[in-house]
């Protein structure tokens, strides 16, 4: 049962996220902003980039996995179709949906893997 290790598992992802936040230094990558009193546990680590296809291609060349978890803005999803929203109703949300990419962050990710990911992110 993993529940008894929950704090330890959360800390592991928090430490990886802190490294991304402190060591990724690339103006083409928009890192998440965290409110002062917030304490995220980082189930996902989502960044934004203007050229998502190019970014993902570069990550693939470095053998770094990435995922687009939410490619469709909520208001344009089938679940909310009955509300009658159309493309252009929420332009900022639509822009973000075209820019978001989830980076690797998982329990068991080694220091060397994080180092390598950061190196590739900074080279992009």
Automatic annotation (TrEMBL):
The keyword Cytoplasm does not apply. It is an enzyme of class 2 (transferase). Its EC number is 2.6.1.90. Signal peptide: none annotated. Keywords: Aminotransferase, Pyridoxal phosphate, Transferase. GO terms for biological process: polysaccharide biosynthetic process. Gene3D superfamilies: Aspartate Aminotransferase, domain 1. GO terms for molecular function: pyridoxal phosphate binding; transaminase activity. The keyword Transferase applies. This is dTDP-3-amino-3,6-dideoxy-alpha-D-galactopyranose transaminase. It comes from bioreactor metagenome. The lineage of its organism: unclassified sequences, metagenomes, ecological metagenomes. The gene is fdtB_8.
């Amino acid at each position: 049962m993993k529940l008894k290790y929950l704090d330890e598992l959360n800390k592991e992802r928090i430490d990886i996220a802190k490294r991304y936040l402190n060591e990724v230094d690339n103006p083409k990558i928009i890192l998440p902003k965290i409110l002062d009193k917030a304490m995220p546990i980082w189930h996902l680590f989502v960044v934004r980039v203007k050229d998502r296809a190019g970014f993902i291609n570069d990550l693939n060349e470095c053998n770094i996995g990435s995922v687009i978890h939410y490619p469709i803005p909520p208001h344009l999803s089938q679940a909310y179709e009955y509300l009658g929203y159309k493309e252009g109703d929420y332009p900022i949300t639509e822009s973000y949906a075209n820019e978001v990419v989830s980076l690797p962050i998982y329990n068991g990710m080694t220091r060397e893997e994080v180092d390598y990911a950061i190196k590739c992110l900074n080279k992009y």
